[in-house]
Design brief:
alpha/beta, single chain, five-stranded mixed β-sheet
Length: about 350
């Protein structure tokens, strides 16, 4: 800038040092590196940028803060430092708020256009979600919909780190403590046997009868498996689990091969496609399971996001979600939803 005073010209030079202003991009880089197992090369590929550029920006941020975010061995990152853990936690909060600002702006600019990403298990994706997805796409054809399938651990990690908008899960809900998880529906299991199997002639199954046969069922941690194990344990029985899978269709395939009797979610049985199998009611043998949908607290939900939740769980109206979002104590949240009558699928 130039200032003229008393016939003299004064020149001012303002020097800006590049390392002294924290950048949002630097926070994105450290967050992405931490969620790519400290692999800077893989992070660069995912962000469509260069590896040296990411490394330089991380160093600039560490120099500005005066602490190391990552420990190193030569040029390789080896672990997140204790200070880095705290910095990454705050960085995650900041990035989520930035994302909410973008969502808010998009909602005002074009409420019917955007994207929605869901993480769930195979059973939900294959049997519970198709009619919901169909109705949602019919209502919002301009919204790009993406679905990720995985284990409860993978689903929770994706939801917490912002990779997905919604998590839909039944098992291991303690992994989702950073999310607002809302109950959607109750469901139970059935026993699948070939039509000529001895159990097909039994009017009402007992757990003791079931335990005498080899079982084909879900991997532990998937689709209500914990309820199954609880039931056998409570009766002092040891189930003969000979084969496990995450996919209900795979389980049915091995039941057909005679490997054992199957225990699957009742929704996974199709009377037409599975007409060679008999589905025996097992609701009196196992406690029902509850499937929940959740999102990160503080997330700005666009209109079509509220609509998706309500399509999946009609009792989760916009007003009820807003009310639940204001409740932070776990016990209070449970009381709030205990008053809601859940449908059965």
């Amino acid at each position: 800038p130039i200032l003229q005073r008393n016939n003299f010209l004064y020149f001012y030079i303002i020097v800006v040092y590049p390392g002294e202003c924290m950048k949002l991009q630097q926070l994105r880089y450290i967050w992405a590196v931490a969620h790519h197992e400290l692999n800077v090369s893989a992070t660069a590929q995912s962000l469509y940028t260069s590896q040296p550029g990411i490394s330089k920006q991380i160093r600039l941020l560490e120099d500005e803060l005066g602490v190391e975010i990552f420990s190193r061995s030569g040029k390789h990152l080896t672990r997140v430092t204790p200070a880095g853990d705290e910095i990454l936690r705050v960085a995650g909060d900041i990035l989520r708020k930035v994302d909410s600002i973008k969502q808010l702006a998009q909602e005002h600019n074009d409420p019917r256009r955007g994207s929605l990403t869901i993480a769930t298990t195979h059973t939900q994706a294959r049997y519970a979600l198709p009619p919901v997805i169909e109705a949602f796409i019919d209502k919002y054809p301009e919204v790009s919909l993406h679905m990720h399938q995985g284990t409860p651990m993978q689903i929770s990690e994706q939801a917490v780190d912002g990779s997905v908008d919604f998590a839909i899960a039944t098992e291991a809900l303690e992994l989702f403590h950073d999310l607002l998880m809302m109950p959607c529906y109750r469901w139970n299991r059935c026993i699948l046997v070939p039509r000529d199997h001895p159990l097909a002639q039994v009017s009402k199954l007992t757990l003791e009868e079931v335990s005498t046969y080899p079982l084909v069922t879900y991997v532990f941690g998937f689709t209500g498996r914990s309820r199954l194990d609880e039931a056998f344990n409570d009766r002092g029985l040891i189930p003969k689990v000979v084969f496990t899978a995450t996919d209900s269709d795979v389980i049915k395939t091995y039941v057909r091969l005679g490997l054992g009797i199957g225990i699957v979610a009742h929704m996974a049985y199709d009377p037409l496609k599975d007409s060679d199998l008999v589905a025996l009611d097992a609701s009196h043998l196992f406690k029902p399971s509850i499937t929940s949908i959740g999102f990160r607290r503080g997330t700005y939900l666009r209109g079509y996001m509220y609509d998706f939740i309500e399509l999946f769980a009609p009792h989760l109206t916009r007003d009820r979600i807003t009310e639940a979002s204001a409740i932070h104590a776990k016990d209070d949240l449970e009381k709030f939803f205990n008053a809601v009558e859940l449908p059965e699928l």
